């Protein structure tokens, strides 16, 4: 079992890694499309993830932002963020799955740009073949990882370590009066006078 102090950094790094993989996949070629020959040549189109799954970049960037929010979130917000991460994962899975299930449909915008043809039937008739690359599968894997990590965040939210005392404010003790021996509160004037003498008022 992972120690509680290691759960937080491990899961935050996992969120960043999954979102980074999705963003990397989005920038790469997902489908290689060959258009129907016009009698002399056959045009080849490289369809990137930005065309095949245009919403993927927003989902990946949202995941990166969520990782930052997790670093300072309390238990309740942490659980909510875990659910959001899981939903982002489901959305990434759907985006990749749609492209994998219908690569020609995912390439329609690129085909329209290259040929000027519009409409589902016209674009499909213009394509002779469409070959998937490795990258949509990586996007699918990234979405699955995001889903799993989000659920793990929800389950382990109460086990994350609490805030440390490193950034807590310094507690000032009352200064003792030299004549009466009684404690008296320190004020801004006392602190200023101490600074001019080279004293540290926080000690």
Automatic annotation (TrEMBL):
<keyword id="KW-0472">Membrane</keyword>
<dbReference type="Pfam" id="PF09534">
    <property type="entry name" value="Trp_oprn_chp"/>
</dbReference>
<feature type="transmembrane region" description="Helical">
    <location>
        <begin position="134"/>
        <end position="157"/>
    </location>
</feature>
<feature type="compositionally biased region" description="Basic and acidic residues">
    <location>
        <begin position="184"/>
        <end position="203"/>
    </location>
</feature>
<feature type="transmembrane region" description="Helical">
    <location>
        <begin position="80"/>
        <end position="101"/>
    </location>
</feature>
<keyword id="KW-0812">Transmembrane</keyword>
<keyword id="KW-1133">Transmembrane helix</keyword>
<dbReference type="InterPro" id="IPR019051">
    <property type="entry name" value="Trp_biosyn_TM_oprn/chp"/>
</dbReference>
<feature type="transmembrane region" description="Helical">
    <location>
        <begin position="51"/>
        <end position="73"/>
    </location>
</feature>
<feature type="transmembrane region" description="Helical">
    <location>
        <begin position="12"/>
        <end position="31"/>
    </location>
</feature>
<feature type="region of interest" description="Disordered">
    <location>
        <begin position="164"/>
        <end position="203"/>
    </location>
</feature>
<protein>
    <recommendedName>
        <fullName>Peptidase</fullName>
    </recommendedName>
</protein>
């Amino acid at each position: 079992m992972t120690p509680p102090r290691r759960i937080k950094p491990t899961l935050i790094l996992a969120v960043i890694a999954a979102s980074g993989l999705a963003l990397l996949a989005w920038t790469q070629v997902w489908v290689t499309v060959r258009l129907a020959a016009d009698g002399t040549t056959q045009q080849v189109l490289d369809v990137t993830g930005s065309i095949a799954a245009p919403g993927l970049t927003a989902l990946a960037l949202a995941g990166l932002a969520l990782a930052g929010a997790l670093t300072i979130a309390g238990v309740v917000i942490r659980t909510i963020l875990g659910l959001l991460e899981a939903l982002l994962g489901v959305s990434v899975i759907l985006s990749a799955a749609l492209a994998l299930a219908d690569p020609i449909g995912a390439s329609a915008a690129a085909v329209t740009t290259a040929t000027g043809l519009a409409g589902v039937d016209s674009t499909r008739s213009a394509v002779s073949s469409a070959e998937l690359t490795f990258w949509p599968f990586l996007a699918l894997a990234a979405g699955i990882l995001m889903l799993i990590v989000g659920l793990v965040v929800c389950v382990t939210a109460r086990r994350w370590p609490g805030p440390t005392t490193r950034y807590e404010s310094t507690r000032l003790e009352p200064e003792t009066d030299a004549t009466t021996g009684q404690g008296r509160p320190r004020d801004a004037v006392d602190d200023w006078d101490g600074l001019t003498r080279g004293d540290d008022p926080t000690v």
